[in-house]
Specification:
Elements lengths: L5 H7 L9 H8 L11 H13 L5 E8 L2 E13 L4 E4 L2 E4 L3 E6 L7
Antiparallel strand pairs: 1-2, 1-5, 2-3, 3-4
Length: 111
């Protein structure tokens, strides 16, 4: 049997990445979830006032809580589905109970 070169032998001990993206997925999963912040009565009233003032097509930016973190999303307001308890921004539906802040936004600032 021919002798293996050092490079060939070294390849046997290199890390094997059969699951592409697995280390990154593990790192994301290891993030500690943020606690959900409760809105004050005044903040909740202000949020409801802003929701009532919106008309379809208004550009908004929403801060909402999902999967242990706060995320921001901007888009055109489509409406509120009170039966399902969700706000629609474009094609995205966000549960009203998860919304922490909602503000008017400029379309130009997101292009």
């Amino acid at each position: 049997m021919p002798k293996m070169s050092r490079e060939e032998r070294a390849k046997q001990f290199m890390p094997f990445g059969a699951l592409k993206g697995y280390p990154e997925a593990l790192a994301r999963r290891e993030k500690k979830p943020l606690p959900r912040r409760e809105l004050s009565e005044e903040s909740l009233e202000e949020l409801n006032r802003r929701l009532r003032q919106l008309t379809p097509g208004d550009w908004v930016e929403v801060l909402y809580y999902i999967q242990g973190e706060y995320r921001t999303f901007s888009g055109a307001f489509s409406g509120v589905d009170n039966a399902m308890g969700k706000i629609r921004i474009g094609e995205m539906a966000i549960p009203l109970q998860n919304i922490y802040d909602l503000r008017p936004a400029s379309v130009d600032s997101h292009l």
